[in-house]
Amino acid sequence: MKFTALALALVWSGVPTHGDAAGDNACTTGMDCSLGGDCVQGQCQCLPTFTGPKCAQLNLVPAENRSLVIPGTMSNDASWGGNVVQDRSDGSWHLFYAEFLNGCGLDSWGTNSVVAHAISQSASGPFKKVDVVQPAFHHNPTIAFDPSSKNYLLFSIGDGNSTPINCTATQSHPNRPAVTVGDPAAAGIITLSYSSSPHGPWTTLPAPVLAGRPGKWDYFVTNPSVHVFNNGTVLMAYRGGWNPWHVGIAVSSSFREPFVRTSDDPAFPVVNEDPGLFLDERGRFHILTHYFGPNGPGGHAYSADGLTWAFAGMAYNFTIQYQDGAETKIGRRERPQVLSIEGKPRWLFTGLQPLSGNSYTFLQEIRT
After folding, report:
1. What is the Cα gyration radius of the chain?
2. pLDDT (0 to 100) of residue 256
3. Is the four-CA dihedral 210, 273, 285, 270 of positive or negative sign?
4. Closest Cα partner for 355 from 334, 335, 321, 328?
5. Alpha helices per DSSP H over 20-159
6. pLDDT digits (tens, 9 = 90+) for 195-251
7. Per-residue pLDDT tens digits for 186-210
8. How many CA atoms are closer than 13 Å to the CA of 55, on its beta-carbon side?
9. Is the confidence at residue 177, as pLDDT, over 80?
């Protein structure tokens, strides 16, 4: 495949093409503004979604200090990010997120992670957990609607063949697993399930949608994120390799067809993982990432056509600001995914690990 379907999708969406991004000098085109704004009289003027001198940072509204998923007997475990899709039949909103069984925390993700499903009448929740749609081990869920086939597409990693361990939420419990280095083999299996309803039932494709390439930088593939065009074309961002970690791009003419890499090389050379792919209100492409190092934890890459990417820098930092004026510094903030409503990025979902306590899935509004 030579990306014919992707090219058509880009034409239909009205996405312009530009040259390579500029460096740190004054802007001359919108590419110099991370495609997050316009270059006006040599200075970047950002869209509401973005902020900063080069429009590289996400313009986040101070968050509500509340639980995203209603606490209760069905949802009392730690979690690590997800995303939401709207039910086209009744307007309800469905959150699919990674949750850890048996009182375990984030360090048990390789054995105890499942994909849980929760429902709300609002895109911002709170959500009530209703079931588990993929058993352990499944992780890194991302959900999308395919307008062409009218199916809901649930991507995740894992094969559902792990045996969860038993532990409590306390750090001192003797059965709590030690933090491991590297990823379990099943994390390199990108799974796709589909359904005509977000309630299911779900049908899982028999083979992984993208395989690692032995001897290449992406010998190991994980962390999928997708955008589905109106004609059914699926653009995927994924993480390849382990230490260093990089982001790759693949495309398929349909979710039932094989994914093909758009390049033999990473999308950009900077070390990142956990890509979260989305389009801004002008139809331009952006990826939020887990950005390693002191300038993280959120990174931002951008593209005019979905194929050629540039890295802008930090999208957000380790400090969460709340509506009551309080703020807190967290230990980890990863798995960024953006929910767009009527073509505008509205909500950022991430997995948060506080400096003490269990991880959880966090929601923060994006300014519009």
Report:
1. 19
2. 96
3. negative
4. 328
5. 109-112
6. 999 999 999 999 999 999 999 999 999 999 999 999 999 999 999 999 999 999 999
7. 999 999 999 999 999 999 999 999 9
8. 26
9. no
Q: Evaluate whether 97 touches 85 at the Cβ level (below 8 Å).
A: no
Q: Which pLDDT band holds residue 295 (cuts at 50, 70, 90)?
A: confident
Looking at the DSSP bridge assignments, the partners of residue 134 are 115
Instruction: Give residue 194's pLDDT.
Output: 98
The beta strands (E) that lie in 229-297 are given as 234-240, 246-252, 260-261, 272-279, 285-291
Q: Are 134 and 193 in contact (CB under 8 A)?
A: yes
Longest CA–CA span in the chain (Å) reads 63
Token pair for residue 149? 């086939």
CA-to-CA dists, residue 262 to 238, 285, 352, angstroms: 12, 15, 32
The span from the first CA to the last CA of the chain, in angstroms, equals 37
The secondary structure element, H or E, covering residue 253 is: none
3-state secondary structure of 290: strand
Nearest to 313 by CA among 329, 297, 328: 297
pLDDT surpasses 70 at 175 = no
∠ CA 133-237-82 to the nearest 5 degrees?
35
Q: What does the alpha-carbon distance between residue 348 and residue 365 come to, in Å, rounded to a whole number?
A: 6
Q: What are phi and psi of 361, to 5 degrees?
A: -90, 130
Let me know: does 329 contact 321? Beta carbons within 8 Å: no
For 122-160, how does the pLDDT look when each residue is reduced to its tens digit (9 = 90+)? 999 999 999 999 999 999 999 999 999 999 999 999 999
State CA 29 to chain mean position distance.
Answer: 28
Tokens representing residue 362 in the block: 């966090």
CB count, 10 Å around CB of 161?
11
3-state secondary structure of 109: helix
Looking up tokens 């589909």, which residue turns up? Answer: 194
Strand partners for 239: 222, 247
